[in-house]
Amino acid sequence: MFERQTVQIKTQGQWTRIHLVSTGAVSVKTKFREAKKRGYLAMIDFMLDRTFTEWMPIWVMIIEHPEGIFVIDTGESAQVNKPGYFKSSGMFANWFDTTQFKFKVDTQEEIGPQLNALDIPIEKIRAVILTHLHLDHIDGLKYFPSTPIIVNRREWEKPFGDLPKLYPAWFKPDLVDLSEQFEVFERAQYLTRSRDLLLVETPGHTPHHCSVVLRGDDCVIFFGADICYSQNQILEEKYSGANASYKMSKATYDKVKRFAKKQRLIFLPSHDKGASIRLKELRSLFDM
Fold first, then answer.
1. What's this model's pTM, rounded to 2 decimal places?
2. Are strands 5-11 and 14-28 parallel, antiparallel or unpaired?
3. 5-281, superfamily in CATH?
4. Domain ranges within the chain, ordered by starting residue
5. Less CB within 10 Å around the terminal CB: N or C of the chain?
6. Mean pLDDT of 167-192
7. How far apart are CA 251 and CA 256, in angstroms?
8. Which residues pair with 62 in a beta bridge?
9. CA 144, CA 150: separation in Å to the nearest integer?
10. To 5 degrees, how large is the angle CA 14–CA 23–CA 99?
């Protein structure tokens, strides 16, 4: 449904290939995507909402870096529409996840077949990096039982809205402490020796939600996951109704925009239809 995009940029003078692939599509309540109220009132508002958004992508980013191949999030599974998929997570989770969202995922859209289409063997992947633990970001974990999986320790210890019953039985991620500062971001962790690939904490959607930053020689690729649903939201100060904290989200918006004023920043949220076009054109946050 959403076309795969591949670009090359130089990092530390060497070519790095970046793929943006969508593992299906999701539709959410309109007031879930963009809240009219705050806090618990926003949650009640979107649960009473009867209208759904258009279909949106479920992006996964694959980085063929000189130091190895990294997969950012794992996307959704075609099993998500199987009757009873959410029952193991309890009555409320089953009701919530079958009434507030719609998914359209074909088996060939899952991350495993997508990697095959790119001729990338799973055994060659250096690490999977999870931005947070929500199902549409972790449901493709089944393809990576022997791959190191990196998660922010604070996200793992204090998740928000995750469904652990859907984790693979073998799932024991490598927990990292984001103990460094990177530019305006107080919590960060470098993932490559060349210090051009980072995990940075961007809280709001969950209290310890992360983004992945790739510093190129001429631009910065910023995989923003669920900071917001679209780039326009961060520019227009509009917020999701499902965020753990409006205050945290606002602070993260401010940091991303401050950071974007210092360099050419390509901002890629997980469910933004325009992300693939911006990646193709290397169009920065403030290029409208």
1. 0.96
2. antiparallel
3. Ribonuclease Z/Hydroxyacylglutathione hydrolase-like (3.60.15.10)
4. 5-281
5. C
6. 97
7. 9
8. 19, 71
9. 12
10. 145
Structure tokens at 112: 């495993």
Give all strands of the β-sheet with 197-201 in edge-to-edge order. 180-182, 185-190, 197-201, 210-215, 220-225, 265-269
Cβ(198)–Cβ(191) below 8 Å: yes
Q: Write the pLDDT tens digit of every residue in 68-77.
A: 999 999 999 9
**d(C-alpha 36, C-alpha 229), whole Å:** 15
**Spatial separation of the C-alpha atoms in residues 155 and 153, rounded to whole Å:** 5
* Residue 62, φ and ψ in degrees, nearest 5: -120, 125
47 to 4, 44, 143: CA distances (angstroms): 32, 5, 33
State both tokens at 17. 């290939």
d(CA 182, CA 200): 8
Classify 173 as helix, strand or coil.
coil
Q: Kindly give the pairing relationship between strand 220-225 and strand 265-269.
A: parallel
pLDDT exceeds cutoff 70 at 288: no
pLDDT tens-place string over residues 107-158:
999 999 999 999 999 999 999 999 999 999 999 999 999 999 999 999 999 9
- Retrieve residue 29's tokens: 């309540």
Tokens of 160: 């928000």
Residues 6+ positions from 150 with CB-CB distance below 8 Å? 127, 128, 129, 130, 173, 174, 176, 191, 199
